[in-house]
Amino acid sequence: MGSYLKGFKITFGKLFKGTESGRMVTVPYVKDSGPKRHKPERLHGRHVLNRYEDGMEKCIGCELCAGVCPARCIYVRGADNPPDEPVSPGERFGFIYEINYLRCIHCDLCVEACPTEAITESKLFEFSFTNRQDAIYTKAELVVDDDGLPQQLPWEDWSDLDKVAAQSSAWVRATAPSGNARYEGVVAWSGELGFGVKPPEVGQSEPEAEPTAPLEGNADAPEPSSGHD
Amino acid sequence: MFALDPLFSGTFDGAVFLIVLAKVVIAFALLLVSVLFMIWFERKLHADMSNRLGPNRAGPFGILQTLADGIKFFFKEDLLPDRADKRIFILAPFLSLVPAFLVFSVIPLGGVFTAEKQGIVTVFGRETYVQLADPPIGVLLILACSSIAVYGVMLAGWSSGSKYPLLGSVRATAQMVSYEAALGLSVIAVVMLAGSLSTHDMVMVQAGEGFGGILPRWNLIATGVVPFVIFVIAGTAELNRPPFDLVEAEQELVGGFHTEYSSIRFALFFLAEFMNTVTMSAIIVTLFLGGPAGPTFFGPALMWGPIWFASKLFLFLFMFVWLRATLPRFRYDQLMDLGWKVLIPISLGWMLLLASLNVAGDAGWNTFVVAGAAVLIGLVAYLMLAGAIATSARRREQAELEGSIR
Fold first, then answer.
1. What's the Cα-to-Cα distance from B384 to each of A176, B255, B377, B378, rounded to whole Å?
2. What does the alpha-carbon distance between residue B320 and residue B356 come to, in Å, rounded to a whole number?
3. With an 8 Å Cβ cutoff, are B326 and A24 in contact?
4. A169, A120 in Cβ contact below 8 A?
5. What pLDDT score does A126 carry?
6. Are B240 and B329 in contact (CB under 8 A)?
7. B326 and A11 in contact by Cβ < 8 A?
8. Contact A28 B48 (CB under 8 A)
9. CA distance linking residue B191 with residue B194, whole number of Å
């Protein structure tokens, strides 16, 4: 009986917020006031379609992202580049690109599948649309603007864009500690409009295993890509 | 028209009609507002008790959260399962909602319960109680309504045409039948003391100078606490609230009986559930804690009735949330054991004890001899019951053992 009543004492004690047992473990959602809280670098938000430094689109319309998508939320159609005014540096480009955010589960598999780092996920998660048509993002909304920054739609809250814009490219995935350790400190991604080639991140591995210089002698080391030529 | 008269006496005219209408509207609005408050209070307090924040977006301290949820439910798509028994499926939410409303109509909400005033207030020159209706069978009405509410739960599960709701409704039926008995038996103790089934008389009996001048003259003390404890436990089970929420055990039955319900139909179940919580607290307050009766200090005496009622009510609302935040759910066999082997025997025994003391008091017998004899008989009965339970458990084990060998 005593132990039975002990439980009641514990839950009642949590009402006193000044004490250790009443300490809050959740924090209020800051939207209207105060600076935004730090977002993890590998947070999966809404997608962006990246462009090369010269403004060309990275997407080549290969449809690998649509094929790998477990939620079947991506619709892509490729088309031949117009010879006189190419959209992308390759032979083909993404003619139609649509993501339905009512279906997307933000698993990031499309980002993994993309051979040209065209589609990546940004840090934006505050985009609650109010009708089904708004949920379908087309190429016009997904492609980054002329400064290389994600476009802001009326219902999206990008108020910390200055902090998170730099973290929206393939750079984030390539330096993931879960990935190949040899990539650390190595530039393994192409340049981007507005940002150029982003420098590699350091300090992901354990301190003793941390390489100080690019592994030049390794045959498997990825070639630093300089984009398209 | 007779029933419209506030005190069941005299003639019916416009003033009487207006009074009754006003009382209906006030009782209805009061219950709805208290449910809005209760849902918010439960979420907030439960959050506090588990180190969370709880609703905090809609309005100050998230107090408009319930309203926002209600509006959302109204505009959601209303799904009718293909295999559902359509008419009963639609009827079921109302079957649990209407009794929840009805019970509140017999709860005394205020009034001055002194010997000369008798809880009567005068409006438009007419005398009335501060309660919607005072039928001579008030307590029976409460028990009847809580039994009818079971049909809502049962039929909802049965008509859904789906297995989890069906399991939920089977549990509901068994649970209600088991705990209804204990509930009724513990109410009998109170009824014997008051000598009436009217809720107004209940409060009248408990008003005034208490035991030894310090303790209030509440039935809680007069019936010796045991019926109160049993009533609270059985009442919690009757409400399907944790730790007795097997009917909608999320981990086992998805949503239990309301799995197939969506939109406003689901909201009606939800509303009924919280309404029942409020009314059950009000019933406990009325039967055991003297309802709106209490001392008056300053200002108009009429003001203190609702204040006492509300503060006592709040105590029990807090208790229900506290129970939910603390206790894990019962297992099904534990639930049945508690109901049939503990609560019903104790409440039955206690009722017989009180009855014998009552008879002894009337006949002028020696109270101590009667009490002693009653305790002795109770002890013998307890030993017989314990023996019976132990024997049956042993036989069942034996049978299972033989079954496994074969």
1. 71, 41, 11, 10
2. 33
3. no
4. yes
5. 84
6. no
7. yes
8. no
9. 5
H or E element that contains A95? strand A92-100
**Closest by Cα among A123, A116, A152, A157 to A137:** A152
Taking only the tens place, the pLDDT of each residue in B199-224 is: 888 888 888 776 666 677 787 777 88
Q: Across the interface, which of B49, B51, B56 has its CB nearest the CB of A23?
A: B51
Question: What ipTM was assigned to the predicted interfaces of this complex?
Answer: 0.71
Closest CA to B258 of B244, B243, B273: B273
Residue type, B31: L
Alpha carbons within 13 angstroms on the beta-carbon side of residue B346 total: 19
Residue A76 has pLDDT above 50, yes or no: yes
Chain A hits for B322, Cβ within 8 Å: 8, 11-12
Q: What is the pTM of this model?
A: 0.76
SS3 category, A48:
strand
Chain B residues touching residue A29 (CB < 8 angstroms): 57
Q: Which of B101, B109, B132 minimizes the C-alpha distance to B5?
A: B132
Question: Hey, where are the domains in chain B?
Answer: 6-330, 345-406
CA-nearest of B60, B58, B62 to B40 is B62
- Out of A7, A25, A28, the one facing B51 most closely (by C-beta) is A25
SS3 B30: helix
* SS3 call for A113: helix
- The pLDDT tens digits for A89-125 are 888 898 899 999 999 998 888 888 888 888 888 888 8
Rounded Cα gap, residues A96 and A205, in angstroms: 40
Structure-token pair, residue B403: 């079954």
Cis peptide bond N-terminal to B243, omega within 30: yes
CB contact under 8 A, A14 and B326: no
Amino acid, res. A204: Q
Say whether B322 and A15 touch across the interface (CB within 8 A). Answer: no
What residues pair up with A57 in beta bridges, in sequence order? A51
Contact between A110 and A125 under an 8 Å Cβ cutoff? The reply is no
* Structure tokens belonging to residue B361: 């008091």
B77 contacts chain A (CB < 8 A): no
Q: Which residues contact B86 (CB under 8 A, 6 or more apart)?
A: B80
pLDDT mean over A45-50:
88
Spans of chain B, pLDDT less than 70: 1-12, 115, 210-214, 404-406
CB of A60 closer than 8 Å to CB of A93: yes
What is chain B's length?
406
Paired with A75 in beta bridges are A98
Query: Could you tell me if residue B172 is left (phi over 0), alpha (psi between -120 and 50 degrees) or otherwise beta?
Result: alpha
Q: Is the dihedral of CA A113, A119, A124, A127 positive or negative?
A: negative
Residues of B in contact with A25 (CB under 8 A): 51-52
- Give residue-wise pLDDT tens across range A135-181: 999 998 889 888 888 888 888 888 777 777 777 665 655 555 445 55
Interface contact B51, partner A, CB < 8 A: yes
Q: Choosing among B45, B51, B315, which should be mutated to test the A contact, i.e. which has the most A CBs within 10 A?
A: B51
Q: Starting at the edge strand that comes first in sequence, how are the strands of the sheet with A74-80 ordered?
A: A74-80, A92-100, A136-137
Q: DSSP labels for B315-340?
A: HHHHHHHHHHHHPPPPPHHHHHHIII
